[in-house]
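thought: fold this chain, then report.
action: predict
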Amino acid sequence: MGESILSTEPRAVRRYTTCGELRRQHIGRTVTLKGWVHRRRDHGRLIFLDLRDRYGITQVVANPAHSSAAHEVAEHVRAEYVLAVTGQVVARPEGTVNPALSTGEIEVLADQIEILNPAKTPPFPIAEETDVDESLRLEYRYLDLRRARLQRNLLLRHQVVRFIRQYLEERDFVEIETPMLIKSTPEGARDYVVPSRVFPGHFYALPQSPQQLKQLLMVAGFDRYYQIARCMRDEDLRADRQPEFTQIDLEMSFVDVEDVLELIEGLYTEMFERFASKPLQAKPFPRLTYEEAMRRYGSDKPDLRFGLEIHDVSSVFQNTSFGVFRSVLAEGGVIRGFAVPGFADATRSQLDQLTEIARSFGARGLVWLALQQDSGHLTARSPIAKFLNQGELDALAHCLQAGPGDLVLLVADAEGTAATILGRLRLHVGRERKLIDESVHAFCWVIDPPLFEWNEEEQRWEAMHHPFTSPRDEDLPLLDSDPSKVRAKAYDLVADGFELGTGSIRIHRREVQNKIFSIMGYDDTEIERRFGHLLRAFEYGAPPHGGMAPGLDRTIMILAGESSLREVIAFPKNQRAQDLMLGAPSPLDERQLRELHLRVVYPDGEATPSRA
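observation:
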């Protein structure tokens, strides 16, 4: 409820009544409302104005028999004009009560109407939730933000942030701000960089996350840190990614994996039970190892709101006469697939389309079998039916828990490739067949991922998460013998098929951190240049520590039921990282470039500081 002179508690900030607070008990009072004209309806002698602010809508009546001056002004008012209205709260006539509005039992009979600011006709409707081209919405974002949907989303964001702060502070966390101008240590996505005017040729980086800074806060003795942290990454965009985003950043000392998972799971359980419109599918959250998630769902962010679990059926085809399967198995590959319940009646056109989709995901082909029953025996309509004997068909159905009426989809390829293809195909089929249970939120943890992944282009090991992640204790000897088998003390929080956040227990000993950097191909000089500040800190008594950084934007997106981050951020960028409202990015003028000691070289090779 908004603050106003009608509030029972003394609040001296607002000297008018909001458009969402008047009720039947206020009948007879004289009030002043200020807001935007949501709708205007001229009924001849009577003019009705729906006045709107972020608290709600109140109907105002301009009656010439009551106030000719107010009625005269109302004749000139149009949608989105900003008004101040003074009048008496009266009951709506019988039969005109609007139960859809919290103020629907009353209206304000206008004594005086003042136009505080007129408005041009908006480029799209504000009062109705109609489809509007996103580029137009982003260009006029200040108008888009007046619409009810975005107002709800941003108010939800505010409430969730307030809840997060309270939850963490009740558990002894301290909010500490970290700098926005830091050193570039490009071990992850590309940095946004800021040139230094004072130090020519030198640059700051905008933080991709406060990772090293929060670790240094642990060295400093702030054993429970958090921050609603602004972060920037120069990476390709999509619906659930923005160049600047917000993390629920936190770090704790003297903890291990279980401590962090318990804290975050408690935070998200209470948050979603308070703010979500749908229940949680399971509590506590299921835990899957990275290997298990990839094997069963073909993804490290599995959507558990539907089945279609992937199975390895390689053993079924050990003696197959089907040449494609035989050659893939001989090369060390696998045959994996899943069954789609009740889809054996798929048309050839639908099956061809699935095959093309699988190819677009990287598959060399897709094998399908429509299972049927004939004289008590399982049969299959399939291009490979003639290569299958009854034993193989029965064993395949058993492995996939499939039966007559189901469609089987199989991919034969290298293990990692097959997993990724089937994971994407599983999601596609789940959406197309409407198998996803949209009535729940399904969380899970994905734990114990590999510490390293191999960069084929650069022929070196890279950190799968980041290079400060601790190996599992039992895998430390493998750092010397087989880095590919080293598992990380890391964990991802997944909800409804989205990765909400990644965290890990960090390395806190210099010798282990040096070893990781060495495996990644850095020599001693490079290690000192990039990370010397952190490694020196480890020599002064760094405690064991770990943490996590769930994405706030993605969290709010899921809570609000949106499919794009842009719907829960006040001033987002478009998919080309452009701010269409401000016109950013934009060129600098010649004077600014000279001050920053910069020269712009364009793709055609021309160099000029003033070219637009």
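thought: worth noting. The two ends are 49 Å apart (CA to CA).
final: tokens above.
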